[in-house]
Design goal:
Blueprint: H1 4-15, E1 31-36, H2 43-57, E2 62-67, H3 74-81, E3 89-94, H4 96-99, H5 101-104, E4 115-124, E5 126-131, H6 139-148, E6 154-157, H7 163-175, E7 180-183, H8 187-195, E8 201-205, H9 210-214, E9 218-223, E10 251-258, H10 263-277, H11 280-287, E11 292-296, H12 298-319
Parallel strand pairs: 1-2, 1-3, 6-7, 6-8
Antiparallel strand pairs: 3-10, 4-10, 4-11, 5-8, 5-9
Helix pairs in contact: 1-2, 7-12
Length: about 325
């Protein structure tokens, strides 16, 4: 599909330098391995490679990326959780292995307690979108349309069992209407169906939709969470629009190391990673991919994890949803 090309080209341009890193040629004590639970070529992989490249250029040591996809990122989490706690193996992941997977999976192949935060690196803005041919131009108009015609209550999601899924349930409960999640294998398929008129509404990361939004082929009705996004001026959160349920719907990427890593080693990684993602040029480049670089401390990251776990645990348990 053509709309993938601009995003892919941007990812390739941002990661071009990092791709030249020699994978295993460095001395072990000078090298960190950044493990990502997705194949090469995606947005988290692009972030990991850019971080590795900048980490090396800043003189912190050598770094390379290992892609270990599988089991909804749990294979990557397991590898890092079982690694030696010496600061040489780092996980880059969204928060779900720590905040929702413990309640949606009957059995995990890792323990969330065996991994500790290093730094919050990036936010992934979540947008509520629809095809531009649809008559409703605001979230309020969409919800009113569903009340008149319940067949419009299908909402496309790129996978179930995460914040978008449970946030949708909360919004439906608050609005006293039926909204049914339709699972897609990925964002491009979802947006394609929105443009084709096959699904009335979708909720997913902004990145894969930016070019279509700018071209007027899809319409953004709002954002998840409570904070506006600098590169989406004029797009308000549903919270700002008075619609409850999506206040805690946010996807973000953080770095983790095995439990038992010496505090001074974790602190060094924290300082280095925060400095990397605070770079203005890197921030600007990733905004083009729909990613908002943050650079927040391990302490604030732990507070966010604790908050999200507290929020989602009762909601997930009430839903009865199980991932396996």
């Amino acid at each position: 599909m053509q709309f993938r090309l601009p995003l892919r080209a941007l990812i390739l341009s941002i990661t071009a330098c990092a791709a030249t890193l020699p994978s295993l040629a460095f001395a072990q004590n000078d090298t960190i391995k950044i493990v990502v639970g997705y194949p090469a070529g995606g947005i988290l992989d692009a972030l990991a490679r850019a971080v590795a490249d900048a980490y090396r250029k800043a003189g912190n040591g050598q770094a390379y990326v290992e892609n270990k996809p599988g089991a909804s990122t749990m294979m990557a989490a397991m590898e890092v959780a079982r690694a030696r706690p010496d600061g040489h193996t780092v996980l880059l992941s969204h928060s779900m292995p720590f905040t929702s997977y413990p309640f949606t999976y009957a059995k995990l192949n890792y323990s969330p307690d065996d991994l500790v935060p290093v730094a919050n690196l990036a936010n992934v803005p979540i947008v509520i979108s629809t095809g531009s041919q649809r008559p409703y131009k605001t979230i309020q108009e969409y919800l009113a349309a569903v009340k008149t015609d319940p067949t419009l209550g299908t909402v496309g999601l790129a996978g179930l069992g995460g914040p978008t899924h449970f946030g949708l349930m909360e919004m439906a409960k608050n609005q006293n209407i039926k909204l049914e999640a339709a699972s897609y294998s990925g964002g491009p398929q979802l947006v394609n169906d929105e443009m084709g008129g096959h699904v009335p509404l979708g909720m997913d990361a902004a990145g894969a939709q930016m070019e279509l939004y700018r071209a007027g082929k899809i319409r953004f009705l709002g954002l998840g969470g409570t904070q506006p996004v600098s590169f989406l001026p004029g797009v308000k959160t549903l919270h700002e629009q008075g619609i409850k349920g999506l206040e805690n719907v946010k996807i973000w990427y953080g770095a983790y190391v095995p439990k038992g890593t010496p505090p001074e080693v974790a602190a060094k990684l924290e300082k280095a990673f925060i400095a990397v993602v605070k770079d203005p040029e890197m921030k600007k480049n990733f905004e083009k991919l729909g990613l908002e670089l943050t650079g927040e401390s391990a302490a604030s990251m732990q507070s966010l994890l604790d908050h999200e776990k507290k929020v989602w645990e009762p909601i997930v348990k009430e839903s009865g949803f199980k991932a396996n």
